Amino acid sequence: MWILELLPDEILLRILKYLNSFDALYSFMKLNTRFENLLIAHKREINLSEVSYQQFLYYFEHLLPNINEILYAMKLGSKKTPGQLGLFMSKVRTTNQFTDIETLTIVEPKLNELTFLLKEFANRLEYLSTLSLINHTIDDSQYLSYNNLITQQLFTLNTLQKCSIYTEQFYLNLLGLQIISTSLVDLELSVHQANDFLHLLNYIPNIENLKITIGWWNHDRTCQAFVDKLTGVPLQKIKLFHLHLHSIILIEFERFNIILKKVLNNSSTLKNFSFSMKSYKSDHLLFIDGDAWQTILSNFSSLEKVHLDIDIIVDEQIGQNYSLDKFCTQYWLKHKWQFIYYFINKRQLIVHSIPYENHYYKLQRKFVSSTHDLPLKFNGTTSKLTIYSSECFNQLLFDILPFINCLSISYSKLCEHQQEIKILHRLVELHLQSFFIDDNQYDLEIFLKKLTNIQWLYLNFENQHLSSNQIISKIKQILSIGKKLRCLNVEFVKPISIEWTVELNENQNQIVYYDENKRLLQIWV
C-alpha cells in the first residue's frame, strides 16, 4: 500500500476509474482519510447488477452502513445476478436509506419486482430524475400488465427528466396513453407501431432528446389520421432525434419525408439527427439516395451531426451499379459527413455513416481477408461478437477474439476450431448455442480454462438424450472450474425435473432459480 500512497491524487483517481464501485470500496475503504476522500465518487454510486451473491450481501452488511456520503445512483438487476431484485426488495421494504437517489437503473425485473420498484420504491425517491429499464425477457402473457405498469406508473413520476426503456422484441402500445410527466426532456423507448409514436408526440411538449424504435410502420388511413391530429410544432425544443425502423416497413420515402417534416417542422434547435432501418422490400431505394436525404436534412439550419444506417434489399443489377456519388456532393462534403457501403450478399446492401457507432457485431457471412475491407474496426471498444457461420472462421477472426468482451457462438463450431483459440484474458461473458455432451467431442472444461476471467456463462443445453445424473454432474463440474463465475444460466431444450436447490445444497453461498416450466436454470454464485 505504501507504494500507492507515493502516487499523486490525480494518478490514484485515474487508477480507481478502472475499478467498479464495489471493488474500489472493498479494496480501499477505511484505509485512511486520503483514500476516503478519493473514494467519494464510488460511494455516491453503485452498480450491483454484476456483483456476486456474496459481494451483494457484503455491500449491504459491511460497506453501506459505513458510508456517510449520499448515494445518488444505483443499478440493480437479475440478468447477470438472478434473484438479486427479490433480495433487494426484502432489504429495502422497511428502510428509507435510499431516498436521495437521482439515477436508478433496473435490469430484467419480473412483473412483481417492477411493480414494487415503481409503485413503492420509486415513489419514495423525491429526487429521482433518471430512470432506465432494461428488459429483453418479457413474457407474452404479461404483455398488457407490463405495458400498463409503464404507461401508468413510470411515465407519471413527476420528478422524472430522463427515461430510457431498452427492450428487444417488446414494443409499448401507447394508444391508451393519457399523461406523461411534463418534466420529461429525454426519452428512449420502443413502440409497437407508427401510430403509437405519432400519438406520443402530443404528450411530450418539452422533450429535447428523443430516441424511438418503431416495430411496424404501415401508412394506412389510421396512420394518416394520427398525422392529421398533430397540431403546432410537436417537437419544438428537440435537439437530438433518433428514429429506428426495426421490422415491418410499409411506407414510401416521399410519405416518410412529409411526416418527418411535420414532426420536426424545420426545427431550428435540432443538432443531432440519426436514422436506421432494416427492410426486406426492394422498393426503398430512396432511403439510400444522398439527394433524397439532403432534401430532408437541409431544412435544419443548426444540424451538426448526422448518422444513417440503412440495411435494405436491392435488385442485383441495381446493386452492381450502386455508388456513393450522391453522398459526395458539396452539401455532404461541407458538413464532413461521410458514408460507406458494402454487400452482405448480392442483394443485401448496407449504407452507413462513418465512424460506425454500433459496438454489437454479427458475423453472418464469410469474413473478408483484410481489415481494410471491414465496415467496422475491431479495437478496444468492441463489446460483443456473435458468430453464425463457420465461414466466418479464419485467421483474422482469431486475431480479433482477444479484444472481445462478450462472445456468442455455436458449441459445435467451437469444438471444430478449439485448437486455434488461445487463452482469452478479456472475455468475461460467453453464450454457447446448442451445447451438448458427447464423449467424442471437445470438452467445455478445457475451453473454460482458456478463459481466465469468465464471469457469465449462458448455455443452450441440448439435453434430450441425457439422464438427470449426467446433467447434474456436468453443471457441478462447470461450477467447480469457473472460479470467477458469477452467474451460470442454462436453458434446457427439454424440460427436466431436478430439485436443484437440493442437488446444489453443498454450496450455501448462491441463489438457485429454476422456472416453473422446468427449462431455465439460473445460479447466482
Structure description:
The protein is built from 20 helices and 20 strands. The protein is an alpha/beta fold and 525 residues long. Among the domains are: 1-43; 361-525, no CATH class. The strands form 2 sheets. It has a 12-stranded mixed beta sheet. An 8-stranded mixed beta sheet has the order 13-14-15-16-17-18-20-19. The relative contact order is 0.05.
Mean pLDDT: 85
Helix content: 25-40%
First and last CA, distance: 30 Å
How many individual β-strands?
20
Cα Rg: 25 Å
Domain F-box: 1-56
InterPro entries: F-box_dom (IPR001810)
Organism: Didymodactylos carnosus
Protein name: F-box domain-containing protein
What does this entry show, briefly?
This protein is α/β, with parallel strands linked by helices.
Annotate the secondary structure layout:
Elements: H1 2-5, H2 9-16, H3 21-28, H4 33-38, H5 40-43, E1 45-47, H6 53-63, E2 73-77, H7 84-92, E3 103-107, H8 111-124, E4 130-135, H9 143-154, E5 162-167, E6 186-191, H10 194-200, E7 209-218, H11 221-229, E8 240-250, H12 253-264, E9 272-278, H13 290-297, E10 305-313, H14 316-321, H15 330-335, E11 338-343, E12 348-354, E13 360-363, E14 384-387, H16 395-400, E15 406-410, H17 411-416, E16 429-435, H18 444-448, E17 456-461, H19 468-481, E18 487-492, H20 500-503, E19 511-514, E20 520-524
Parallel strand pairs: 1-2, 2-3, 3-4, 4-5, 5-6, 6-7, 7-8, 8-9, 9-10, 13-14, 14-15, 15-16, 16-17, 17-18
Antiparallel strand pairs: 10-12, 11-12, 18-20, 19-20
Helix pairs in contact: 7-8, 8-9, 10-11
Protein name: F-box domain-containing protein
InterPro entries: F-box_dom
Organism: Didymodactylos carnosus
